[in-house]
Design a protein that fits this description.
Two copies of one chain form a homodimer.
Chain A: H1 2-10, E1 14-17, H2 27-30, H3 36-51, E2 57-61, H4 62-66, H5 69-85, E3 90-96, H6 100-112, E4 119-122, H7 135-139, E5 144-150, H8 157-160, E6 163-164, E7 167-168, H9 169-181, E8 193-197, H10 202-211, E9 217-219, H11 229-235, E10 242-246, H12 248-251, H13 264-278
Parallel strand pairs in A: 1-2, 1-10, 2-3, 3-4, 4-5, 5-8, 8-9, 9-10
Antiparallel strand pairs in A: 6-7
Helix pairs in contact in A: 3-5, 3-13, 10-11
């Protein structure tokens, strides 16, 4: 998490979400006589190259690639490998959550193997077993995880907002994450166990970020999902303790614009506008 | 779910879990001069061929394949395709849970695309949004989902057992699943929205299966995880309303036996023993 915090301070607290769909690809790229995986990868690469000085990290949402089957997953793999080669930070947005022996396999695949990322997202409905297989890699200091805490979607509250004693379910989850994350505090003061907390519920987010000062947040919900920069300005006034993800808002910026060779210029412009929106404090 | 209920009655309520690791493969297969994906697939195929008359369905745990990267996922894909060709029922054990637009991508990948299965497992920490993109496919009647309810692992209770009002969190989840599943009741009386409930907590399981008579269960925790057939005999006395998964117990039955051409005979024997253990009621 140290690296991410430093990158967020140096560049901006923006996480660019590469939720790449075929319909986002410029026609000129779609019509090239190359494999589908190569088209998807080149699309991502152009956006990465055009924005890498503006974004703290890139999040690759694996669902979009699984939807495209083996070719999609090859693009997922190649995108993460490219980020690594460029020295850029990556989040594999996989939201895996299972029993220990199964989670250990996800560690093999997503922190070490073909799909290696610097950080991954996890779901802990099954409790600490979903996290403990990651501890060995977290201890070494260069990997991190973000666990679902209070998500940005409309039905987030179905389970997360249930009142359980004096706390809501998501607050229980937060307290557990704080406890589990305590052994992994880095030099910048943040645990390698971070949390996903949506910007669409700004009040709850502000409370969470106060309640857990050592927790680094992955914050979805900006732009397409309705969250605004001003919601974060209060929260980030005391320093950066999270990255704000934008996917569609940035990677579809070129659609409905006249098509040129350099579609990613439009994505860069959107990322710049987002940086301005976020960094007004 | 109709098809699964019928298969469970005709064959047995066994679900064979193909959690395939390289270390499970017989040496003769490992040393063959073929691609890794082919070795993994042939291992699965032998087990499927040797047990298909005994098992209601086969569950393929994708984590084991993701751990082996692109080659692993090719084996995952080919295993599901083979099950389909043979007219056998498959569960893609993916436990995905995300916002609607992302879950819609998992539908594309896992109910329709390269990784098509008859049923998949899901996690609903994010609420109904994790399920609603599947409704269209569930309505058509030949697909099903199993959502994490009360899992079989040691730390299942961290979140699931929190007391929230008069009910525990997992009971709230069960009530939600019952509500969401109500429009999808099939001819056999079960909803296409089933639930994962572990055998390692037999009392809780018995209560759940009474509380939700229209819910079909995927029941992990038999064998390696400690669950016993006798725990199920009470529950299944009134009819079959779930399938019991065994993975390692069956697919490693040939290890530490003298190696022959037909390693899967040992897997068949274990499946037969499990059938006897389960079907004594």
């Amino acid at each position: 998490m140290d690296k991410l915090k430093i990158a967020a301070e140096k560049k901006s607290p923006i996480c660019i979400g590469l939720d790449t769909e075929l319909s986002y690809l410029p026609k000129s790229l779609l019509q090239k006589d190359i494999a589908l995986s190569e088209k998807l990868f080149l699309f991502n690469k152009e956006i990465i190259d055009a924005t890498e000085d503006l974004a703290a990290c890139f999040k690759v949402q694996i669902a979009f690639y699984e939807a495209l089957g083996m070719e999609g997953l090859l693009a997922y793999k190649n995108t993460l490998a490219y980020l690594k080669r460029q020295g850029l930070l990556s989040i594999g947005d996989i939201k895996r959550g299972d029993i220990q022996s199964t989670q250990a396999k996800y560690v093999e695949g997503h922190l070490r193997g073909d799909f290696e990322a610097d950080m991954v997202t996890l779901s802990a409905y099954m409790g600490e077993d979903a996290l403990s297989p990651f501890y060995e890699d977290l201890k070494r200091g260069d990997k991190g995880v973000f666990v679902l805490l209070h998500t940005s979607n409309p039905s987030a509250g179905d389970l997360q907002n249930l009142q359980a004693g004096e706390k809501k379910v998501y607050e229980h989850m937060g307290d557990l994450l704080e406890k589990w994350g305590a052994p992994f505090i880095g030099e910048e003061g943040f645990s390698a166990i971070g949390a996903v907390a949506g910007l669409t519920y700004p009040k709850e987010f502000a409370l969470l970020s106060k309640r857990y000062p050592k927790m680094f947040f992955l914050i979805p919900g900006y732009g397409a999902q309705g969250g605004k920069g001003e919601d974060l300005q209060q929260v980030f006034r005391d320093g950066i303790h999270g990255v704000v993800n934008s996917s569609r808002g940035i990677i579809t910026a070129h659609l409905h614009k006249p098509e040129g060779e350099h579609f990613a210029i439009h994505c860069r412009e959107k990322a710049l506008a987002m940086k301005e929106d976020l960094c007004r404090w």
